[in-house]
Specification:
The protein is built from 13 helices and twelve strands. The protein is α/β, with parallel strands linked by helices and 373 residues long. It folds into two domains: 127 residues, no CATH class; 241 residues, Purple Acid Phosphatase, chain A, domain 2, CATH 3.60.21. The strands form two sheets. A six-stranded mixed beta sheet has the order 1-12-2-3-4-5, with helices on one face. The chain has a six-stranded mixed beta sheet with strand order 6-7-8-9-11-10.
Length: 373
C-alpha cells in the first residue's frame, strides 16, 4: 500500500510538472502565432498568452473539484478546452508553412481559429455517437473445421471519469448483449474518478451477458487504485486475470480457448515484479486450440508469438483520438491500431470503447471489436 501511494504521488508530481510546462509553451506558441498574423503589440501578446495558459488549467481545477464535490461540469469544459488547444496547435504547425514562405496575413490566423473551433465542436458531437461494431475474423488455418465460431467482444479504455452519462453505458451494454457473445474481455483503463460517482455506470456494466467475462488492468487502473479496480471489476462479473492463465471449453463449438492475462507495465512500479509471460505459459498444462493474450499496451508481440500466443488483444492508444496525438501514438507504438499479422499470429489494438481525458474524438467513433474465432 505504501509503495502504491508513493508511486501515485510520484506520477501526479511528474504529470503536474509536465502539464504546467507543456501548456505554458503551447500557450505561448498559440499567442505568438496570432500576434504575428494580427500584428499585435508586445503587451497584447503577453495578455493573450496569459489568458490561454490560465484557461488550459480549467481541466485540472475541474478534476480536483470533481473528486471532492462530484461536480463534473467544470472538468468537462476543461477537457473541451484541452482538446481545442491540441487541435489549434496542430493547425498552427501546418499554418506555419505560409509564414516560412513569406506570407503574413490575418486571414490565415482567422482560418486557423475558425477551423479549430469547428473541429473541436465536431469532436464533441462525434464522441457522443454510439460505438461502431467492428467484426473481425483472424485467419487461423488450424481452426478451419466446420464448426460455429466462438464469438468474443473486446472492451477497452472505458475511462469512467464522470464525463460519461449513465445512458451511454446502458446503451453500450445493450449493444453488447444484442451480439450475444460467448466471451467478453476488458483490456484495461476502467476508472478515472471515485467509485461513488460512477456506481450507476458500474451497475449497468454488471448486466453484460456472456458465459466468460475476463479483464486485465490498464495504466489508469493503477493511477486510480489497483485494489479498487480489482474489486469493482469483480463485482461487475469479470474475472481479473492479471498474471494468470484460464482455459475454457465451449461445448457448442467443441473448442478450447486459453486466455493469458498480463497486468499493465505500471504494475512493476505500483505493486512489484509481475510473473513473466514465459513463466505463466510454462506453468500451464491445459489443452487448448488457441491462445489469446490480454495486454493493455500493444507491445512486445514479437516476443509473445514464439511463446505460443496466437492473438494479442490490446488498447491504450485510442488511435490518437485528437491531433497531434494520432501522430505521437504512431511513433510510439508499432501496432497503434487495427489488426496486424505477425507470422501466423495476430495483434489487435482497439481505438477504445470510449475516450480518455477530453470528451472529444475527432476521427471516427469509438468501437466494439467483435471477433469470430
Amino acid at each position: 500500500m505504501k509503495k502504491a501511494h508513493q508511486s501515485r504521488s510520484f506520477v501526479f508530481t511528474i504529470f503536474f510538472s509536465m502539464f504546467v510546462i507543456v501548456l505554458a509553451l503551447d500557450s505561448y506558441l498559440i499567442a505568438s502565432y496570432l500576434r504575428y498574423n494580427f500584428r499585435w503589440y508586445p503587451n497584447q501578446l503577453f495578455m493573450a498568452w496569459l489568458v490561454i495558459w490560465l484557461l488550459s488549467f480549467t481541466y485540472l481545477f475541474g478534476e480536483m473539484l470533481s473528486r471532492v464535490t462530484g461536480f463534473f461540469k467544470l472538468k468537462w469544459l476543461g477537457g473541451v478546452i484541452l482538446a481545442w488547444l491540441s487541435i489549434i496547435t496542430s493547425l498552427i504547425l501546418v499554418g506555419i508553412i505560409p509564414l516560412l514562405l513569406g506570407f503574413r496575413d490575418p486571414v490565415y490566423a482567422e482560418l486557423v481559429l475558425a477551423s479549430s473551433i469547428l473541429l473541436t465542436l465536431w469532436g464533441v458531437i462525434n464522441q457522443w455517437r454510439k460505438p461502431i461494431v467492428k467484426r473481425i475474423t483472424p485467419y487461423f488455418p488450424f481452426l478451419l473445421e466446420k464448426r460455429p465460431p466462438i464469438t468474443l467482444v473486446q472492451l477497452s479504455d472505458i475511462h469512467l471519469n464522470g464525463l460519461k452519462s449513465v445512458h451511454s453505458i446502458k446503451s453500450l451494454v445493450d449493444q453488447i448483449n444484442q451480439l450475444e457473445p460467448d466471451v467478453v474481455v476488458f483490456t484495461g483503463d476502467l476508472l478515472d474518478t471515485k467509485v461513488r460517482y460512477v456506481q450507476p455506470h458500474l451497475d449497468y456494466l454488471a448486466n453484460i451477458k456472456a458465459s466468460v467475462k475476463l479483464a486485465v488492468s490498464g495504466n489508469h487502473d493503477f493511477y486510480s487504485n489497483y485494489d479498487v479496480f480489482k474489486d469493482v471489476i469483480q463485482k461487475a462479473g469479470f474475472d481479473c486475470i492479471d498474471s494468470s492463465v484460464k482455459t475454457f471449453y465451449f461445448d457448442k463449438q467443441d473448442r478450447s480457448l486459453r486466455f493469458v492475462g498480463l497486468p499493465d507495465s505500471d504494475y512493476q512500479r505500483f505493486v512489484g515484479e509481475p510473473l513473466s509471460l514465459k513463466d505463466l505459459l510454462a506453468a500451464d498444462s491445459s489443452s487448448f486450440d488457441l491462445t489469446v493474450l490480454l495486454r493493455h499496451r500493444p507491445i512486445e508481440y514479437e516476443q509473445s508469438y514464439p511463446l505460443g500466443v496466437d492473438l494479442q488483444l490490446s488498447g491504450h492508444t485510442h488511435d490518437g483520438q485528437i491531433p497531434p496525438w494520432g501522430l505521437l501514438v504512431r511513433l510510439a507504438f508499432k501496432y497503434h491500431y487495427g489488426l496486424h499479422k505477425v507470422e501466423n499470429g495476430y495483434v489487435y489494438t482497439t481505438k477504445g470503447t470510449s475516450t480518455w481525458g477530453p470528451p472529444v474524438r475527432l476521427f471516427g467513433p469509438s468501437e466494439i471489436p467483435f471477433f469470430y474465432l
